[in-house]
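User:
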Amino acid sequence: MHILSGPIDTMSDAAEAVDLNQTAGDIVILSAADSDLNCLVRANSKTSPKTPSLRLANLTKLGHNLSVDIYCEKIISSAKLIIIRLIGGVSYWPYGLEQIRNTARQAGAKLVVVPGDDKNDPQLTSYSNTSPEGIDRIWAFFTNGGVGNAFNLLEYASTLIGYETKWKEPAPLLQAGLYWPSLEYPGISELEQFWVYGRKVALITFYRALVISGNLKPIDSLIATLLDQNVNPLPVYVSSLKDNYSDEFINELSSTIDVGAVLNTTAFAVSSIGTNSGNRPFRNTDCPVFQVILSSSEKNTWFESSMGLGPRDIAMNVALPEVDGRLMSRAISFKSSSEYDAKSQCAIVTYEPVQERILFVVNLVTNWIKLKETSNEERRLAIVLSNYPNKDSRIGNGVGLDTPASAVTILKALKNKGYLIRDLPKSSSSLMTKLRDGPTNNIECANKKEGQAKLSLTTYETFFQMLPKQIQVEVNQRWGFPAEDPFVEDEQFILPVNFFGNIVLGVQPARGYNINPKETYHDPALVPPHGYLAFYMWLKHSFKCDAVIHLGKHGNLEWLPGKSIALSETCYPEAILGGLPNIYPFIVNDPGEGTQAKRRSEAVIICLLYTSDAADE
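Assistant: Predicted structure:
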């Protein structure tokens, strides 16, 4: 008979016999649950070198009878203690149970068999040959879950075969609670020891199941990166944001701690049609709530996909959370097909964090925190008017929106709120005259109008070199080198920007030159020219913009090349906007295109309605 050698990846492969190629160990634990194996691997990494050797295996790899025989001969026959956690009862794996019981009896080894859930199964546990008290204790370690219980399970198991260790009784994991790497059941005082006084706090919410499985590398990386970026993390695990205990836990916690941002990694929505949820768990926070995605796909699948995420992830982690009004950020981790643990000689499935994606999310979060902490008088904002098609007569185009009049109204409202604004336009017509008198997207007048804002080629090239190499190559191949851009004059980019104190008002650059703007406006392959990049680089780095308001329906930033959702660093909306807070008034009856801006440029969509006059027209 053909025997596969080494680890296998899927349950269907178990139709053939397999040799797991493990060496003998003192303790053998078998389970079909990835969460059990993940926890045990994490716990085993913390045990003393003097503790018994451990072998772990996924029961799904031992589905073939010959696989069982090989494993009994090579591994079970040399073990001192075998623990099996089996869901589905004796009928799920009768041959394996029988052969392991016989082998354990012949070898004089101890055997503990417990259910894979919290339902008692006397028939299953009857295969055990240890005390009922020991069986119940080991079962309780499993059912309560978590790395802490897994560690104490290993310590207790060691005592059963003659080792002296200190172990604790199984500890139940609450429906919601605080978390910190390396700490077991911490309180807020323990977390505060890692905080720096005076820094803003970011609440991180994630599923309790990650604690139970020990699959916490993405959360640990997020915590570490927030600390590095001068933000105090407040990690909270929940069974669900809809769970009453979890809801009240977050509510009480946030009523005593000033939360500057929420980073939520749970799926689905709290809100539902016809109910007023009041953003339930986060009702005591006055801050943005970001949706952070732990993807169920593998990293390579995401990287190679133009969509970014699969239908399941989009539904659970994007579309439904959008119902709650969360700001879409990025996918920060992906499932790995297998991580091999040499100490236990077992392959496990884990969430693998992607550090550069975490850095982007934390940068986005800190930008919003900074925006809130900056006084109105010191805030520097940019209002960017759409221009479709790229004619001066179409500057500030909008559907259901008088964009010029809205821009003037926004400027007046900002001034009333204490923003530093000078030379306020008297009317929308005077504003438009000022814009058209300066640089616009009119390529025929590119070098004929004096602009208020310029960016030197030297400065531009410095920032351009900081972009991903792929973007540099694509832009140069399509549009030539920066000095060849038609909006460069005397080695400077002439930018369509007008100053009004700490507020600048600009015309969004065209997606290209000497092209049909109607046919290319939504082109998913057309990369923007250097002048486009220079405009946003100036906003971010020279003007040091705190936030941008895209005004008019609709702009072109959200239609630039890249993934549809869960963007990467080589996606143009990310490379250009770079996590800058983005506010976008958008007509309420076009959710599709508004969603494009929300998902691809992290926009906060402010819905607007048609006026009665516009409706009559």
